[in-house]
Amino acid sequence: MIAFREYFLSYMVEKTSGIYTKLLKKNSVGWNLTKLDLQHYETNTLGYHLYQFLEEKNIDLMPKHESHDLFHIIANYDVSGIEECRLQFFLLGNGKCSIYLLISLAMAIILFPEKIIDFKKHIQRGQRANRFYDWDFKNLLHQNFEILKHKIYNHENVPTPR
Fold first, then answer.
1. Three-state SS for 45?
2. What global pTM score does this model have?
3. Neighbours of 92 (CB within 10 A)
4. Alpha helix segments (H runs only) across the chain
5. Where are the domains of the chain?
6. What crossing angle do the helices spanning 66-75 and 46-57 adopt, rounded to 10°?
7. Tens-digit pLDDT profile for residues 35-46
8. pLDDT tens-digit profile of 62-81?
9. What was the pLDDT predicted at 158?
C-alpha cells in the first residue's frame, strides 16, 4: 500500500511542479546550467557532488528548482516518495515556508498518517541544522562540499533519523 501512495505522490509532484513554476516562480531566474556543466567542477565541490547525484539518480536539473536537488545531497535524503516527504519536513524545520511546501506537507500527512512521528523527527533535524535553505547555491557550486556541510551542521553530527 505504501508503494501505491508513494507512486501517487510522485505523480502529483510531477503534475503540479510545472504549474507551481509558472504561477509562483515566474520571476525566478534559473541557473542556465546543465548536468554536463556540473561535471567540470572539481571533484570535492558542491557542483560536482550535484553532478554525481543527478547521474546516480538519472535525472536532470529542473530549471528554477536547481537548489532542490542540492537539498537532497546536503541533507542526505533520497528521492523516493517517503524520503521526499522527510526532506520537506526537514526544510520546514530549517525555516523554509512556501505555499508549495505547505501543500506538500499536507499531502504527506494525508497519504502517510502513520509517519507523522517520523516526520516530526525530520522537522527537529532541520531545526538543529544552521539555516541554509535560502543560500545562493549557484554561487557556492565551486565551494568544498564537506566544508559547506560542516557549516550547516555546526560541528554537530546530525544523522538522518530512520
1. strand
2. 0.87
3. 21
4. 2-24, 35-38, 46-57, 66-75, 81-93, 99-111, 116-128, 145-153
5. 2-23+35-153
6. 90
7. 999 999 999 999
8. 888 899 999 999 999 999 89
9. 47
C-alpha cell at 139: 554561487
Residue reference for cell 547521474: 55
Are 51 and 142 in contact by the 8 Å Cβ rule? The answer is no
Q: Classify burial at 73, counting beta carbons within 10 Å of its beta carbon; exposed 0-12, middle 13-18, buried 19 or more.
A: middle
Amino acid at 68: H
Exposed, middle or buried by CB within 10 Å (0-12, 13-18, 19+), for 19? Answer: exposed
For residue 144, give the 3-state DSSP assignment.
strand
In this structure, are residues 89 and 18 in contact, taking their beta carbons and an 8 Å threshold? no
* CA–CA dist 19, 33 (Å, integer): 22
